[in-house]
Amino acid sequence: MAKLFRAAIMGPPGSGKGTISKRIAQSFGLLYLSCGHYLRESIVAKTEAGVLVKSYVERSMLVPDQVITSMMLPRLEQLSGQSWLLDGFPRTLPQATALNNLYQLDLVISLNIPYESLRERLSDRWVHPGSGRVYNMGFNPPQVQGKDDVTGEPLIQHDDDKPEALMARLRHYKDVAKPVIDLYKSQGILHSFSGTETDRIWPYINSLLSTKMHTQASDACQTHTP
Ligand SMILES: Nc1nc2c(ncn2[C@@H]2O[C@H](COP(=O)(O)OP(=O)(O)O)[C@@H](O)[C@H]2O)c(=O)[nH]1
Ligand SMILES: Nc1ncnc2c1ncn2[C@@H]1O[C@H](COP(=O)(O)OP(=O)(O)O)[C@@H](O)[C@H]1O
């Protein structure tokens, strides 16, 4: 039986977590779980949690850990037989600790992208709110300008992608990510990638995952061989 593979991807806003996660999900069959997408879903649904979440996201602040863990952990518990990739969770040390109490991650990818690239990318990021599909007018434009490729529905820009909000989000990211990165480094599962272009980083991530998932599958075979 194939062993389950559990991974997370970290990086500042606009670093390409969503773009790379989709490639990973497609190439390696991991289930993709985006924390930001679930948060936006709760905002649109105007649930009790969603109203609270909105008040933080629109001020470019991190949503309280308790709200995030009670949204993410039950989802993971429902997926007990599946391999997955987390995007945007865990983002703080308390979130990482709560996750660690339930699951040991096999691999964490950390993306280091220069600020100027982040700013350029985010000022041009358009999303389909229903599905979370992301476009960039230069890098991966929609087939019809302003419309989602699959549904034809209008694309929107997030208020928190505007430059003034971006600076605040980057500051928050750096402060809270460091202890999480240190934790995964100490567990020996952190892999960092630096660069300005997703297409140049992707082959390295692809090759890392091929090796890790292959090694893990053959370890599992050996474990199960009588
Ligand atoms: N110009 C350019 N844009 C990119 C590149 N990689 C991703 N993007 C775009 O940059 C924006 C941010 O990427 P996204 O995957 O949403 O980043 P996330 O915030 O870390 O999840 C999106 O509009 C992407 O389409 C790249 O290498 N070059
Ligand atoms: N794990 C998390 N903990 C706290 N807040 C979060 C978390 N994930 C997302 N958020 C909130 O949702 C917003 C959007 O998140 P996301 O879509 O992941 O965007 P980005 O990676 O571009 O910041 C964040 O700015 C933050 O306010």
From TrEMBL:
GO terms for biological process: ADP biosynthetic process; AMP metabolic process; GTP metabolic process; ITP metabolic process. GTP binds at G14, S15, G16, K17, G18, T19, R125, V134, Y135, T198. AMP binds at R40, M61, L62, V63, G88, F89, P90, R91, Q95, R169. It is found in: Mitochondrion matrix. InterPro entries: Adenyl_kin_sub, Adenylat/UMP-CMP_kin, Adenylat_kinase_CS, Adenylate_kinase_lid-dom, ADK_active_lid_dom_sf, AK3/Ak4_mitochondrial, P-loop_NTPase. Transmembrane segments: none annotated. It is an enzyme of class 2 (transferase). SUPFAM superfamilies: Microbial and mitochondrial ADK, insert 'zinc finger' domain, P-loop containing nucleoside triphosphate hydrolases. Keywords: GTP-binding, Kinase, Mitochondrion, Nucleotide-binding, Transferase. GO terms for cellular component: mitochondrial matrix. GO terms for molecular function: AMP kinase activity; ATP binding; GTP binding; nucleoside triphosphate adenylate kinase activity. Pfam families: ADK, ADK_lid. It comes from the Eukaryota. It catalyses: a ribonucleoside 5'-triphosphate + AMP = a ribonucleoside 5'-diphosphate + ADP; GTP + AMP = GDP + ADP. Residues 124-161 are annotated as: LID. Residues 34-63 are annotated as: NMPbind. Its EC number is 2.7.4.10. Belongs to the adenylate kinase family. AK3 subfamily. Consists of three domains, a large central CORE domain and two small peripheral domains, NMPbind and LID, which undergo movements during catalysis. The LID domain closes over the site of phosphoryl transfer upon GTP binding. Assembling and dissambling the active center during each catalytic cycle provides an effective means to prevent GTP hydrolysis. Monomer. NCBIfam families: adk. Involved in maintaining the homeostasis of cellular nucleotides by catalyzing the interconversion of nucleoside phosphates. Has GTP:AMP phosphotransferase and ITP:AMP phosphotransferase activities. This is GTP:AMP phosphotransferase AK3, mitochondrial. It comes from Cynoglossus semilaevis (Tongue sole). The lineage of its organism: Eukaryota, Metazoa, Chordata, Craniata, Vertebrata.
